[in-house]
Amino acid sequence: MSNTFCPLPWVNLNSNTEGSIKLCCNIQENFHIRNNERELNFGIDSIEDIWNGNYMAFHRKQFLEGKQPDTCSVCWNLEKDNIQSPRQVACDEYKDINVDTISLPTSLELRFGNHCNLQCNSCWSLSSDKIAKERSDLIDQGQLPDWLNEVWQGEKALVKNADFEWYKKDEFKKTFKKLAPTLKKIYLTGGEPTLIDENIEILQTLLDAGNKHCYIALTTNLTYWNEEFYRRLNYFHNAEIQISIDGIGEKNSYIRYPSNWDHIETNLQRLRNEIQQHFIIKHYTVYSVFNYDSVKEIIDWAYEKHDPPRRYIWAPIICSAPDWLSIKWLPKYLREEALLCLEQLDKEIYKDNRKKNAWFEYGISTIKTYLKETLNDVEENNARDRFFSIMNVLDKKRNIDLQKVFPDLACLN
Q: Which of 242, 322, 243, 261 is nearest to 290 (CA)?
């Protein structure tokens, strides 16, 4: 295979929260699967029409010919910055793939609607009904900056035209029952998946099909504990619980508003005590302007919660969009200071127990590589201005204060 090959067109499909479909979750929102210009939807179209259509055939052909389809620009840009891309991870996972056989997908990424209990600053209306309502209310008040009003009006239109209950339709239920016996991996997110009862039904359908070998992964904000969901999860042979935590204490509550830190710590303890010991806990942190200098604080907390021999992996997600959350607008000296701290952290922290704590080293390396790449970039003042503009709007609406929680960041205004 060429060094641009990706195996996902032979194994995977991804649903958006309104039922539209992409090849994988990393593909940008304007590249949904279509057939003769009509956007396909899991709630309407059969799995055969989706999987065997022109879109999938085109991408399989592109990858076999060593080309780089535009739809996959996220991965190409990461690789350009010397950061491991999801495509490269998939190549490692599916290195023995047989491209001569096109069976139905064995991997699904499912987002059952936008129901969520949080309004995270890195999120948007199609992934949180709370954000959708908040932004709609702010639009109706008529006091937004023109640029922000235009962006949020676009989101409002998308929400108005979306069917967030597509997963309740007969066509999708038929599709999932057909795939359930042979699925090897399923990823559940949202919205907040533990709040959506149909995710329990998904697990039960797999169990009824006798498929306990299916690898279950989910992303949760860990603010809610669903007893029935985790009880069923324990029947499977392998699982990965991905927890989204971007800061410690009130910092996380600000970034992932209005999360309750005590609830998160309590539910993490329940995860450690109540799910199978060999299930992985993967801690994702969206690396942004909010936490560019908080890596040590986050890792210290995670280290304290680490429970050998369970695998606990800390994995940062580089925030590139929206651009006002990217660290690229920070003054260069702050990015240099953050890099220097990480260089020191990588040399000294937990020096006596390196093997045990290899779970965070790759994450540190990822951020260091990214920081080094940004040092060649010019500060993006327009993104900085948009950041303070939008945080001013949200602080007033939520009755919170950037200056109080992130004083060093606020002083850059």
A: 322
Beta bridge partners of 20: 41
Report how far residue 407's alpha carbon sits from residue 413's, in angstroms, rounded to the nearest whole number: 11
DSSP 8-state class, residue 20 = B
Q: Token pair for residue 274?
A: 């109540």
Exposure of 8 in the CB half-sphere (CA atoms within 13 A): 23
Residue-by-residue DSSP string for 75-94: HHHHHHTT---HHHHHHHHT
Total-model pTM: 0.93
CB 141 within 8 A of CB 174: no
Report pLDDT digits (tens) over 10-42: 999 999 999 999 999 888 776 788 888 789 999
Query: What angle, 0 to 180 degrees and rounded to 10, lies between the N-to-C axes of helices 332-348 and 295-305?
Result: 30
Cβ atoms of residues 257 and 120 within 8 Å? yes
Cβ atoms 366, 89 nearer than 8 A: no
User: What is the per-residue pLDDT across 339-356, written as a single tens digit (0 to 9) for each?
Assistant: 999 988 866 665 555 445
- Measured between alpha carbons, how far is 259 from 123 in angstroms, rounded to an integer? 14
Long-range contacts of 135-140 (CB under 8 A, 24+ apart): 137/397, 138/393, 138/397
49-58, 80-89, 232-241, 352-361: lowest mean pLDDT where? 352-361
> 37 and 91 in contact (C-beta within 8 Å)?
no
